[in-house]
Every structure is written in structure tokens, then in C-alpha cells.
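User: For a benchmark we're assembling, each entry needs the component sequences followed by a predicted structure for the full assembly. Here are entry 17's components. Please fill in the structure.
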Amino acid sequence: MSDDFRNSSLNELDALVIGGGIAGLESALNLAHMGFHVMIVEKDLSIGGRMIHLSKVFPTLDCSACITTPKVSETARHPNIEILNHSEVKHISRDENGSYRAVIEQRPRYVIDSLCTGCQDCEEACPVVVKDEYQYNLVGRKAAYIPFSIASPRIAAIDLDNCILCGACEKACGPGAIDFTQETRITEITVNSIIVATGFKLFDPDRITRYGGGKLKNVVTAMQMERQLVPTRPFNTVLRPGDGKVPDKIAYVLCAGSRDATVGNPICSQICCMYSIKQAQLILGAVPMADVTIYFLHVRAFGKGFDEFYQQAKMMDVQFIKGKIGRIKELENGDLMLRYEDIASGQVKETQHDMVVLSVGILPNMGIEKLFGDEKFKLDPFNFYNQPNEMTDPFKSNLPGVFIAGTSTGPMDIPDSILSAGAAAAQAAKYMKQHQASISHQATTPL
Amino acid sequence: MIKEPNFTGKRIGVYICQCGSNISDYVDVEKVREEISRGKGVSLAKITMFACADSAQKEIVADIQNEPLDAIVVASCSPKLHLNTFRGVAERGGLNPYNYVQVNIREQDSWAHSDKPAQATLKAIHLIRAGIAKVSLSEPLTPMTIPAENSVAIVGAGVAGMRAAIELADLGVNVHLIEREHFVGGRVAQWGKMSMTNQTGEEIITELYHEVKKRESIRVYTGANIIASKGSIGNFNIQVKIQPRYVEPPCDPESFKKAIEACPVEVDDEFNFNLTKRKAIFFNYRSEFPAMPVVDMAACTRCEECLKYCHGIRLDQQYRIIEIHVGSIFLATGFNPYEPKKGEFGYQEHPNVITFQQLKRLLDLTKGEFRFRGKKIERVAFIYCVGSRQIDGENKYCARYCCTSAIHAAIQLRQELKVPFIYHINKGIRTYGKQEILYEQSSTSGDVYLQFVEDDPPVVEVLNNPIKVTVNDLLTAHMEVTVTTDLVVLITGMVPRVNTELISILKVPLGKDHFYNEIHPKLRPVETMIDGLVIAGCCQGPRNIAESASSALAAVSKVYSILNKGEIKLEPTLAIVNPAACEWCGKCLEACPFDAIERIETEKVPVARIIESNCKGCGMCTPVCPTEAIDIKGYTNPEVRSMIEAMSG
Ligand SMILES: Cc1cc2nc3c(=O)[nH]c(=O)nc-3n(C[C@H](O)[C@H](O)[C@H](O)COP(=O)(O)OP(=O)(O)OC[C@H]3O[C@@H](n4cnc5c(N)ncnc54)[C@H](O)[C@@H]3O)c2cc1C
Ligand SMILES: Cc1cc2nc3c(=O)[nH]c(=O)nc-3n(C[C@H](O)[C@H](O)[C@H](O)COP(=O)(O)OP(=O)(O)OC[C@H]3O[C@@H](n4cnc5c(N)ncnc54)[C@H](O)[C@@H]3O)c2cc1C
Ligand code: SF4
Ligand code: SF4
Ligand code: SF4
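Assistant: Structure for entry 17:
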């Protein structure tokens, strides 16, 4: 970050980007390249969103970390971008000039960022082990921890909810970076434009009792499988969680929580067919002898290179069976019995698998609409942020100067999220130019 | 035994990336590090988990400053991905970015030889030694800065092109909007009511065109084609040939109407996919833009009937060629609907087998009852994926827009035109995302869905009336179902527009699917291998309107961030001539594909000279020079030779 930006009062910037996933990063980078000053507010300890945790990405099978980290690092050091991690916007209001004033709350990480070297000595010293949410609970982490190996910033944080205040980390930390007295910081900024890129929530499969309601040991979500397949994978192979066995007959259940009015989500999640096909290919790489079967309703392989990717999976002997899974039952040895209507034969069938992956879908991640006070920031019928003119002004919201990008507008994959972010940035840039011109016009027009 | 590279006294830092495990699963990185660290000039050799991660970049910067290092080598993935990332690292550490060499031990090693880890390890060592050899000889280079013209040529005035023009103009860029047809709007103008918002194409195009016309910084050329282009990013000189419309103001709409009525020539109307006829002087539809008819000279007999009613008609108009100077070229040339072959599902064997694009025109033209060739239509069968998802054919891809758009049309047929029987003979419906709602709506309102599989397509019987379509239906456990229908609609996909000339003039890179190709779908989704040439909309691949507009605006971001700085840095890896060694044989001039070499007279002899703004550093000239007088900076003959020696030792 350049010094003049640091020293300038943080109060006046051009734009605020809420959410530091791939859509937020791309929006901010685009604006920064155009010369605007941007602040990113990210709820999490690290920027990068969901994408930084993925294995390889369809349809090109690039290593996701390898294409996310450069964007993350470019954002982190861009002179025009300021990042507030571990922060949330609490309130947004509009002033008489039409600019937005945002109040941002940054929660403490109890580690002084300028001192922490990321050496992990605190992690070593900490006696508390809890589930690691960044590994989707597949493994544990300490209460003093670095979120994940490629986090940005790669510095420690203390999880005070689980910390027993034993002080071991404080003693272990050479540079003295741990500071239990840190408090919540409030920052107020004024901006001319806002881009909302708060991403999506994953459907929680515990809501589907037919699929065991989260109680079956060897049923995992696709996100958990994704973590088993990343280059820094925890087990170096694929394991089923129940007993640590390498599975050899894996089933994917598509549309888990999507296209299903009974769980309140009638729409298609757009990405799960493709990520399942991708994971199937990766599993065959990691466990070459495994059988992988994908139970689907329709295979939505619609994008550039997608259908070819689907055909490739078929050639690799991934099995595709058209049929909706009615019920999953656990057997004594931990295997799972899947009951389904096999549409091709018209019969109800049962098949045994030793591991099941639920291809859970995308749900809206609401909340931003509450920040605007009296101004109404609208949602669409599915609770994604509304695009009043989706055909010709696609990422404009109903409020002037407020734009939306990525999966906060609806289900989409990474390529589409990146395009949407570029589009939102162009629209925000134009708005800011016009807005600034109108303010300076007001200022020079005598009353 | 592996030979040591030449040593020039530079202190070199080598970083070996595990790429998570993408590399270290097959390459024994510790062994590589050990071997490499023993090499002369290697001050340090380190292994990193992800060299591109922020923390690793910071570490390299610190090493450069603390050691200090004179040059660095990162052995990781393809330079296509990260050359600029690490050049930036070198620069932040205080090195000249060209004292950095990237060695690809992933795509060219660990992934290619995953079955032979020992050999992959050895190959990594060889490749890295070559990199060290190159960086030992590398010279600092400085990019040349040239001013960039703050204007853009947008090719194609469909939704994508017009949407981009408006935004770029508002950002302060001068826009030349070049449309090859005589009317703007592209395909959308043809579709009537559309998914997902029920807006009509006419409404959308009218709105966009009015916005375009409001802006003085947009110049619209219709009937215009690019016929030549020279130069590169920041400074393209383009020649545009503008065909006459043979009509000019002033003339009022009433007189135009009479002139058109008077024209005795009738030809197939392509706008309506030949469902109707039009005159030689014509409009495509009521509110078309520019709001002036055009004379189709190929059909005009010069009878001059029209002249009697409208004095704006000038049958002797000539074409013009104009030159424009722009900093960037923006391609939005769109697609063509797939045209089925004769006999494909009965096409052109029975008049009631039509394409989806024809149905869309019919719907737009129909008021009241739905009739075709004089008969009321009560049964319609759609056959999906025609010209798409061909396992054995040319078009392997899914055309993305058609399931949703077809179902939207089916809903219109049922709700507005009261067609009671609609059959969807599909290959698996792909109404992704929110579009699913239309599928739900159609399937619960009485439409019948039948599904076929790739190797057992539906059979259309056209010999008898009415037409019969037989499907081996997957949804009823492969029952053979025969549907009797009044109309068969082939739901056709998208293919690239024919643009052979433009593609060859601008050297547009194409993908396997023959659409224009981006550099990388995630990292650089709107840029092409030709710097300054961006692509958007359906010329890049099938998309609906919202997606076309989104990509167009994303490309606007790119163009604006190139042009708003006012200048462009050119790669310094260009050709260079040693005049003392040059004997002017002219071979380099012949070899150069970019007109970057000229002959100049010196005191004694003529020699070659490089026109740097044209040179792309492609290297075609170096091997043909008999005296080695010409070389490429950053890839000099001594550098390349030392790499070969290091590798083959
Ligand atoms: C299992 C799985 C596999 C996938 N595989 C692929 C694939 O192979 N290829 C592909 O193209 N796509 C894939 N995807 C889809 C991909 O993850 C998404 O397209 C992409 O992550 C969307 O990016 P985003 O920025 O919109 O949202 P996110 O990645 O969700 O980022 C949103 C960011 O906003 C932050 N945030 C949320 N709320 C707030 C708030 N109130 N204040 C501040 N910050 C906030 C979040 O912490 C997060 O960092 C996959 C998805 C899943 C679930
Ligand atoms: C039958 C059908 C129905 C559809 N229905 C819907 C729908 O309901 N909803 C929806 O969202 N989408 C629909 N679509 C998709 C929609 O048509 C496209 O998304 C949209 O047209 C893409 O716009 P574009 O600007 O990229 O391309 P185009 O519309 O093809 O425009 C490209 C323009 O470039 C011009 N051009 C080409 N080459 C040159 C050249 N060399 N020099 C100068 N100009 C050139 C062309 O003349 C044209 O004007 C439908 C498509 C089809 C085929
Ligand atoms: S807080 Fe201290 S001990 Fe923990 S990683 Fe940072 S520097 Fe190391
Ligand atoms: S993308 Fe595939 S798995 Fe996901 S909801 Fe849509 S149809 Fe189901
Ligand atoms: S969108 Fe539907 S009709 Fe079009 S090619 Fe894809 S699957 Fe076939």
C-alpha cells in the first residue's frame, strides 16, 4: 500500500466493496485499475471467499488456489485498495450529496497484524483443539491459529470463544504479537458507490431427513469432498469420515436442496452438476480403482466447454444414472443403501455405496438489505439481490450507485462471477464519474 | 552427470514450488533443491508451498533485498499463468523484472510425467538448470512507453456492442461503432417477446439505440466492414469500407412507405428467415434504426419506380473508405442460429418442419389465432438440441440459451395463442439457475416432455399429413411414443457468424468450437492473445442477453483500464539489429509477419532496422539471418544456446 493512501484520511474513498470473494476482489481490482480508491470489507479472517478453498475448477481443471492467490495478492498490495478483514458493515446512510456513509465494525483478532510473522509458534503452543471450519470440520485446529495456509493476510488469530486464556500463545510468540486487550474498531467512510458481493450460502443438508438429516457418518457434502481433493488436502487421499476407509463405491446425489419446493428452494443451483462431474474426475485421479456414480435429474452442462467436460467424465467411466434418490439408509458396516427410481427402467431400485456426496446447492446470503435504513434495497423473488433491469443493465440494484456482483445476484460459477464483477465495476465507474460531475456542478452553480 | 550452467557472477535465488501437491506429488522437490543449490551462482534454493501466495511473494521480496540477489528463478507452473506475477515480485524487490526467469515444471513436467516420478524429478533439475543459465546472461530491459489513443472501434452493433458503446462513451472514450448490416440491433431485434423478462427485442433495441444517439462521442457506421488494420494496442489504424444505403435524408416516413409499395421486385426476407417476402427497397420492421430504408442493390433492377415517391433515393451512391485511429478493438460480432441440413428431422422435406428462429418470427408477427400456411395450429412438437451437443458432429457444445428460450416460447404459445398440445422432445432440459421456474411452469401447465438419448434420436415422418414424430422415451422406461403434430419446431443452437475476412485481418484466435477465444476463462475472460483486442457477447460462445450484456460491460472495464492511463507499456522483448554484422540480404524483411523491418541506408551499406512499435518479438527473423546480426532482446542467441547446453549436459 502506498504511503499517501495510508496517510490520507480513510474517510473519503470512491467505492466500497462488501465481500472479498472472487466477485468482490475482481470488482475492486477493476476499479483500482481504473484509478478509483476502493475499500473491501470482508467478514472473514481472510479474503478469497469460497474459491480459495476449492480444489481444481471446471471446466479447465486449473488448480483453484493457483488462480485465486495471485488475485488475492494483487488486491492485497494494490495501492488503491484498502482491505478490512474480520469486519462487517453495520449501517449505511445517504447524505445530501447522494454519497453513502458506511459504519464498519472490525472485530479484534487479538493479534497485532504488523508484528505477527506467521511463524505458527502460537498454534504449536495452544492446547485447545476445535473443529476446523476452513476444512469443513474434517480435521481440527487450535484456538490460536492461522486460518489456512494460503490465507491473506497470513497471520494468526485467537478464537476467543474457544480460548481458555491459558496464555501459552502469548509466551510462545517471539515478536510479542498477541494482544488480548484488542477491542472492536469502528471505521466510518464516505463513498460514492457500493458494490455488494457477499456471495452465497450453502444449503444445509441436515434439513433433508430423507438423506439422514446430517446423522449418517459416511454422507458428506460436496464442499467437504472438495477439501479432500485440494492440493493441500488433509489426508492425501479420499477417506470416508465414519471409519477412515478409502471408499471404492462413491455416489453423488445431485440437486440436494435445489429444484425442490419442499425445502423452499425451487430453483436450480447452476453449479452443482458441474462441480460433481469435476469431483468425480478428480476422485478417479486420487483413487483410480473407485467407482463413481452420479444420480441426476438433468445434467446442466451448459457453459463454454461444459458439455465436452461431461462427455469426458463419461469416457473416464463415471456412471450417470437418471433418477431422484428417495432415501438413504445406513447399514451396519457404515455403507449406505440408496433407494431411487431408475427412470431408464421405470423401476424402484436399491444400490449400496460406501460413501455418498450430497451436491448441495446455492442459497441467498441475505442481510445487506437491512443496512440501508429507510432506503429500500430490494430482493428478488428468491431472496437474491434484485436486478431491476437484468437484460441491459445487469448488475445495477434499485438504489442509485449501488451495484451487485457474483452469486449475491443468483447462482453462478466462477467465470460468470468474474464477468459480473467486471460489469459491476464498469457500471460503478460510470456512475461515479457522473456523480462527481454533478456534485462539482452543484458546487460551482451559484444559488 | 548434469553439467553446470555458465556462471557470470550473478547471485541467483531459485524457488521451487510444490503447487500444493500438483508438483510435489510427482517431483521430488527436496532432491531438486539439493541438486540445484549446489550449482554455481545459486545463492539460495528454497521450496515453497505456493510460490504465488501473498506470503511467499513477500518472502521472495525480502530475500532479494536481504541476500541480496541479482536475479531469481521460480520453478512452478506455466509462465502463461504467472510470468507477470513474478516479474512484479522481482520489481518490488528492486530487480529489473527481466532478471527473472520462470521455469515450467508443472504443465511440462509433473503433470506430463505423473507416471514416472523419478524421471520427472530429473527433468525438473534439467529445466531449472536451463533457467539458471538463461538468467545468468539476462540483461535488464525497460519497456517502451507509447501514447494510447483514447478511442475504441466496436465491431457489431447488437446488444453487446451497443451496450458497451454507451458505457465507454460515458467513461469518456470516443467510440466508433461499426455495423456490417444496414440496421443496428443484431439478432435480438428478431426475437419479439423474450425470456426472462418478457421485454421485446424491439423495446430493447429501441432503448439502446436512443441512448447511443444521445451521445456525441459515439459514431455509428452501418453497412460498414473493416477491410484493413495495422498497428497494435494503443494505436490501431483501421480502414472501414462503408457501403451506400442508396437513400439519404430528407424524406418523410409516408413517402418511404409509398416508395416501398411501388417497388416491383420481391425477394425472400432474411429478417423473417424467408417466411415472407420483402421489396428491393425495404425496412426490416417498423421502428428500425437508423430509421431509413435501404436499397438491396443485388435485387434492385434500377426501374426507378421508387424515385417517383421519394427524392431521398440515390441509386448512384458509391461506397466510401474511411480511416480511423483507435487504442483498442472490441469485437461483438455475435452468432448465427444453426441452419439445419436438408433432411435433418424432416427439415425442408415438409414445410411444417421449421426452425426455432422461424417460430420466433411467426410469434412476433402473429396477432390473434396461431395459423401457419393458412391452417390453424393446435399441436406443436419441439425437437431440442438440433445442431448442438453433437457427440460425433462438429458442434459438441450446448448452446445454452435454447432450452429456456424454447420453453418461454411454449408458454407464450399456450397462454397467448391458446395452443393446447405442446410436446417437448428433449435431450435433458437445461434451464439452469432461476430459469428453472419457466420449466416448472410449463411442465405443470400441461406441456408434455419426452426425452431421447444421443444414439437414438426421434424420427420425423413427413410423408403423410399430419407429421408424426416417434421417440424412444427415456422418461417412460423407453416406451416408443408417437406424437402427431401440425408443426415441428427444431430448437436450433448457435454457431459463430461467418467472418472469415475479419478473423484474418485481425488474427482473431478461435477456440475448438470456432467461436472467438479468450486467453483464460477465469483469469482473462474478455481478452485475446492479441493485445488490445477484446471480445464480448455471443461471438465468444452461446449466451443469453443478460449474459451478453454482462460480458460486454466486463470488457468495457478492461478497455477503460487500458485506455484511461493515456499510455501503454510495450514488452521490451523485441528484435534488435547489430548494424556492424548486417549485410542486408533482406531475408528478415521477408520473414517478418508484422511489417516491423525496414531497410535503411548507412554511410557504407544498407542495413536492416526494426520498427519497434510494429515488432511483436515473435522471433521469425532471427533464424533466417545468415550473419546472426539480428536477435531478440530477452531471448538472445547466447541465452538460448546456454539453456540448451545446460539442459543437454
Ligand atoms: C463444492 C463447490 C465446488 C465448486 N466448484 C466450482 C468449480 O469447479 N468451478 C467454478 O467455476 N465454480 C465452482 N463453484 C462455485 C464458486 O464457488 C462460486 O461461483 C464463487 O465462489 C462465487 O464467488 P462470490 O464472490 O460470488 O461468492 P463467495 O465466494 O461466497 O464470496 C463471498 C465473500 O463475501 C463475504 N461476505 C459474506 N457476507 C458478508 C458480509 N455481510 N460482510 C462482509 N463480507 C461478507 C464472505 O465471507 C466471502 O468471502 C463451486 C462451489 C461449491 C460450493
Ligand atoms: C431463436 C433465438 C431466440 C433467442 N431468445 C432469447 C431470449 O428469449 N432471451 C435471451 O436472453 N436471449 C435470447 N437469445 C439469445 C440472443 O439472441 C443473444 O444473446 C444476443 O443476440 C447476443 O447479442 P450479440 O450482440 O452478442 O450478438 P448479435 O445479436 O448476433 O449481434 C452481432 C452484431 O454484429 C454484427 N456483425 C457481425 N459481424 C460483423 C462484422 N464483421 N463487422 C461489423 N458488424 C458485424 C451483426 O450484423 C450484428 O448486428 C435467442 C437466440 C436465438 C437464436
Ligand atoms: S501471533 Fe506470534 S506466534 Fe502466532 S503466528 Fe504470529 S508471530 Fe507467530
Ligand atoms: S446444477 Fe444440477 S445438481 Fe445443481 S440444482 Fe441444477 S440440476 Fe441440480
Ligand atoms: S440449451 Fe437445451 S436445447 Fe440448447 S443445446 Fe443445451 S440442452 Fe440442447
